[in-house]
Amino acid sequence: MGIEFRSDVTVELVRANASDADVVFAARVSTVGEQSLEDVDADPQRSVGLINYLMRDRHGSPFEHNSMTFFVKAPIFVWREHMRHRIASYNEESARYRELLPVFYVPSHERPLVQSGKPGAYEFHPGTPAQSELVERTIQESCTAAYSGYLEMLEAGVAREVARMVLPVTIYSSAYVTMNARALMNFLSLRRKVEGSYFVSYPQREIEMVAEVYEDHFAQLMPLTHSAFNEHGRVAP
Ligand SMILES: Cc1cc2nc3c(=O)[nH]c(=O)nc-3n(C[C@H](O)[C@H](O)[C@H](O)COP(=O)(O)OP(=O)(O)OC[C@H]3O[C@@H](n4cnc5c(N)ncnc54)[C@H](O)[C@@H]3O)c2cc1C
Could you tell me the end-to-end alpha-carbon distance of the chain, in angstroms, rounded to an integer? Predict the structure, then answer.
């Protein structure tokens, strides 16, 4: 059957039309009216000041005139959380039109397994070797059994949309996700735990793995916006 177990996510930037100049360009229409993008690059220092001001005072709309498209392959339990972020565009592979591949998530040995503290602010700690073995064995056995039931139903002529009902949320699915910087900053503020943020969030580790790669791309594409975001407590404008 060739079942694959992975402990990571795939995140690739497939297309981007996003730069700090886009922010400045959009904001300056307020004060100087229409102008060209070349004018924006002419005075970088003023651009830093303007972007910082927009971020600090939460003038959010100038951060919307750009877009970043990612290809993401992640377990379905990550997608359930990801798709709560409505200010994004999604196209996901269909398990009605094609057979899902037998690729499942299993936590790596480094992934903390035990929680403590109160809801909304759980702390996570490493599991014992016995817990680690139990998690790995239980996930692998149940995914293998579920996928074999899936194949058995398909082979018996059952429709894909019915056969998939047996599959667990650890199975991987892929989608294109397009966001603008404002929506992405909202995503990053909620889906990464960064000490020193104005509002520290406590996300599930696996969606945070997606967020980390998003943030690396964002920082490269829009360095001034990214550093203003950090400087002002990682609060989405
Ligand atoms: C740590 C954590 C725990 C969570 N726990 C739960 C949980 O237990 N149960 C649960 O159901 N969800 C939970 N969520 C999901 C959370 O409530 C949000 O649905 C999710 O984070 C998406 O955030 P968002 O609405 O800001 O994003 P987006 O949908 O991308 O929206 C971005 C912004 O647009 C505005 N906006 C979008 N839609 C509307 C609207 N309809 N009305 C008004 N303004 C709008 C808001 O300003 C919003 O912040 C959790 C999230 C996190 C990070």
Answer: 48
Q: Residue 204 CB: number of other CB atoms within 10 A? A: 14
Distance CA 82, CA 179 (A): 12
Examine residue 220 and state whether it is found in any structural domain, yes or no. Answer: yes
**Ligand 1 centroid distance, CA of 20 (Å):** 26
Where does the chain show beta strands of DSSP type E? 4-6, 10-17, 67-75, 89-92, 103-105, 114-116, 123-125, 172-179
Q: Find the catalytic residue in 191, 192, 205, 234.
A: 191
Residue 227 CB contacts under 8 Å (≥ 6 apart), including other chains: none
Write down the pTM of the prediction. Answer: 0.94
State the residue range of the domain holding 180: 4-105+129-231
User: Which residues have C-beta atoms less than 6 Å from ligand 1?
Assistant: 84-87, 183, 186, 190-191, 201-203
What is d(CA 13, CA 194) in angstroms, rounded to the nearest whole number?
A: 23
All residues at 6 or more sequence positions from 26 whose CB lies less than 8 Å from its CB, including other chains: 61, 62, 64, 65
* Residue 15, amino acid: R
Confidence of residue 159 (pLDDT cuts 50, 70, 90): very high
CATH (domain of 164): 3.30.1360.170
> pLDDT tens across 66-99, in order?
999 999 999 999 999 999 999 999 999 888 888 8
Is residue 183 within 8 A of residue 110, CB to CB? The reply is no
Indicate the number of domains in the chain: 1
